[in-house]
Design a protein that fits this description.
This protein has 11 helices and 10 strands. With 329 residues, it is of the alpha/beta class. The protein has one domain: Alpha/Beta hydrolase fold, catalytic domain (Rossmann fold). A hairpin with a 5-residue loop joins strand 2 and strand 3. The longest helix is centred in the last third of the chain and has 23 residues. The protein is globular and about 55 Å long.
């Protein structure tokens, strides 16, 4: 399967400009792994390719009715000593940004180094080039039910096939950009699944002071590169669906969770792409933090110089915080 990878120029042209482009991150790269015979594994997933030759990074590609037209993949990063310890481990689900894929954190963000000799499984799934970690209202290219794939299929498959703690205190979810939004959304909608949630330059309000611009971005970018003209939230919007996905409208769902937020305060003044992305992220995260503070929900927030990118020191700090919060291996 050849991954769809349109240029930023074509995205802008097809989606009408800034609204489509702002929520998308850097381009992803493809992975390779040894082929394997198809195996039925339940949970609506069928393995069509696997790579288990590396002692830490294992790779799987699935056939699933939740995603039509191609087969989504996942990287599973195992702790050093996993194969001999016999222990169970907590799990971090780490979600990529727009125009990226399941291998991004391995290829560009040193996830192996940041987790070396740390007792944590890291699961990095495909989430679509502009899937917004959602089941869309409409699509012309087949099913793109990323939310269903992740929550109803992949999560129980991971628990069934790896030595995890299949419980609230055994799981965290984090992400960058679009993936940061996905992490905040999943942690709220599926309260009992994740004890820790982190958004690295991820928007935290679909509405608010930005004038609903994040919802516009989700619709325009998904129409341009993910859904063949379909949309995540519909036209006109399915307002109930927007509210169900909106972190700011689900504040109480973050109580008793570890909440970690990162946003940039000084995007590159010459780079309009960076300016537009992180400017909105910063405003939405400030709104989100205001509401957390208003109801007395503790959180850790960082505003740092720079724009829309993964900060390795913050990712490392976050990983250490996840390990400290979750049940120990």
């Amino acid at each position: 399967m050849t991954a769809q990878n349109p240029t930023r120029r074509s995205i802008l042209k097809s989606a009408g400009g800034l609204t489509a482009a702002v929520a998308l991150g850097a381009g992803g790269v493809l992975a390779s792994a040894s082929p394997a015979s198809a195996v039925g594994d339940g949970f609506g997933l069928r393995i069509v390719e696997r790579g288990e030759h590396d002692h830490r990074m294992w790779y799987y590609r699935f056939q699933t009715s939740a995603i039509g037209g191609w087969n989504p993949a996942v990287n599973v990063l195992l702790p050093d000593g996993y194969h001999t310890s016999g222990r169970r481990y907590p799990v971090l689900y780490l979600l990529h940004g727009g125009q990226q894929d399941f291998i991004t954190f391995d290829a560009h963000h040193n996830i192996r180094g940041l987790t070396a000799w740390k007792d944590l499984i890291v699961v990095m799934p495909d989430g679509g080039r502009a899937g917004w970690y959602s089941n869309p209202v409409s699509t012309t290219v087949g099913a793109r039910d990323w939310e269903h794939f992740h929550i109803a299929q992949l999560l129980p498959w991971i628990d069934a096939n790896f030595r995890t703690y299949a419980e609230y205190d055994g799981r965290a979810v984090a992400g960058f950009s679009m993936g940061g939004f996905g992490a905040l959304k999943y942690a709220a909608k599926y309260y009992g699944h994740f004890a820790s949630v982190s958004a690295h330059s991820g928007p935290a309000n679909l509405r608010g002071a930005n004038g609903d611009v994040v919802t516009h971005w989700a619709n325009a970018s998904s129409a341009a590169v993910e859904l063949g003209g379909g949309t995540v939230y519909g036209i006109p919007w399915d307002q109930a669906r927007v509210s169900a996905d909106n972190p700011v409208e689900r504040i109480e769902s973050y109580r008793h969770k570890r909440v970690f937020l990162v946003a940039g305060t000084s995007p590159d003044p010459v780079n309009w792409w960076d300016q537009a992305n992180e400017g909105v992220v910063l405003r939405t995260q400030r709104e989100f933090r205001h509401h957390l503070h208003r109801v007395g929900i503790p959180h850790e927030a960082h505003e740092l110089p720079g724009g829309h990118f993964v900060r390795p020191e913050m990712l490392e700090r976050d990983i250490n915080g996840v390990i400290a919060r979750l049940r120990r291996a």
